[in-house]
Amino acid sequence: MNITFSELRKIKHSLPTGSVSRIASELNLSEQTVRNFFGANKLESGGQVVDFQLQPGPNGGIVSIQNPSIINLAKQIIEESKS
User: Fold this and answer.
1) I need a surface site. Which of 23, 38, 51, 72 has the fewest CB within 10 A?
2) How far apart are CA 68 and CA 81, in angstroms?
3) What residue spans define the domains of the chain?
């Protein structure tokens, strides 16, 4: 899956409060790993650096995501919060 870095950040900023915890819980990940997916880069508190590639380009570059489970759940949470 490829999206722009700007789109990734827009999704992050659209998530309602508590979404990082929910995503981490549902996908059995640490909260820091979920934060790292959206652009943080910390290894503290058990977080893992998420494997995606950032290629230079417009809108912050193109992010090539190998495992879209976090972004798919984030989009689902955003849709749920609209209703």
Assistant:
1) 51
2) 20
3) 2-82
